Amino acid sequence: DVKVTQSSRYLVKRTGEKVFLECVQDMDHENMFWYRQDPGLGLRLIYFSYDVKMKEKGDIPEGYSVSREKKERFSLILESASTNQTSMYLCASSPRGTQYFGPGTRLTVL
Amino acid sequence: GQNIDQPTEMTATEGAIVQINCTYQTSGFNGLFWYQQHAGEAPTFLSYNVLDGLEEKGRFSSFLSRSKGYSYLLLKELQMKDSASYLCALPSGGYNKLIFGAGTRLAVHP
């Protein structure tokens, strides 16, 4: 079974804090993705990575950065959290075709 | 560009049949995915259609018409546990990226 894990299920941060969200997959997948999910807007792609140290912007990269130093680990960084970044963050990995999702991190920025 | 439309909400009765529609526009078709997402949980893969017609998988079936830009998910013998959001998704560019519809929230009542 493919397993994708995320570092926290719930997180509360203050405006201006630096936030790290971590995602780990155990199936040696090349491709990893970070999405945010908001009511009525569906899943929107923030960044993705197709190999170690390789990253590409998705549809809404502003205010975010990513890091992929090891194949199994893909981190999402909010350099200075803002209230409009309150959302559900979902990580996914994919060998080919379908994507496998982690359980999500519900981030609240106060 | 690509665009996906799904109804926002549907309700159905336990034991009944429900059809969830998805219409799409895309410049190059490479298949269509359906995912199920229970509230507060990660999306999980349901089906992938690349050829026209109906594919049956237990109580769930998925239909595709490429010429009409149309797909539907058919859920039979509805159970309370089928209450969830159903997401339609298209491959978008390389690296197994997906673009998701906003999802259809299905409520099954006794």
Brief digest:
Chain A is mostly beta strands. In chain A, 0% of the residues lie in helices and 58% in strands. Chain A binds chain B through residues 4, 31, 33, 40-43, 45, 48, 50, 56, 58, 90, 94-104, 106, and chain B through 8, 31, 33, 40-45, 48, 87, 95-103.
Describe the structure using short key phrases:
heterodimer; A: about 110 residues; mainly beta; seven-stranded mixed β-sheet; four-stranded antiparallel β-sheet; 11 strands; B: about 110 residues; six-stranded mixed β-sheet; five-stranded antiparallel β-sheet; about 0% helix; globular
Structure explained in plain terms:
The complex is a heterodimer of chains A (110) and B (110). By secondary structure, chain A is mostly beta strands. Chain A is 0% helix and 58% strand. Chain A contains no helices and 11 strands. In chain A, the strands form 2 sheets. In chain A, strands 2, 4, 5, 6, 9, 10 and 11 form a 7-stranded mixed β-sheet that branches. A 4-stranded antiparallel β-sheet of chain A has the order 1-3-8-7, with no helix packed on it. Chain A is globular and about 35 Å long. The model of chain A has no long low-confidence stretch (mean pLDDT 94). By secondary structure, chain B is mainly beta. Chain B has strands spanning 3-5, 9-13, 18-25, 32-37, 44-49, 53-57, 60-65, 70-75, 84-91, 98-100, 104-109. In chain B, strands 2, 4, 5, 9, 10 and 11 form a 6-stranded mixed β-sheet that branches. A 5-stranded antiparallel β-sheet of chain B has the order 1-3-8-7-6, with no helix packed on it. At the A-B interface, strand 5 and strand 10 of A face strand 5 and strand 10 of B.
List the helices and strands and how they pair.
The complex is a heterodimer of chains A (110) and B (110).
Chain A: E1 4-6, E2 10-13, E3 19-25, E4 31-38, E5 42-51, E6 54-57, E7 64-70, E8 73-78, E9 87-94, E10 100-101, E11 105-109
Parallel strand pairs in A: 2-11
Antiparallel strand pairs in A: 1-3, 3-8, 4-5, 4-9, 5-6, 7-8, 9-10, 9-11
Chain B: E1 3-5, E2 9-13, E3 18-25, E4 32-37, E5 44-49, E6 53-57, E7 60-65, E8 70-75, E9 84-91, E10 98-100, E11 104-109
Parallel strand pairs in B: 2-11
Antiparallel strand pairs in B: 1-3, 3-8, 4-5, 4-9, 6-7, 7-8, 9-10, 9-11
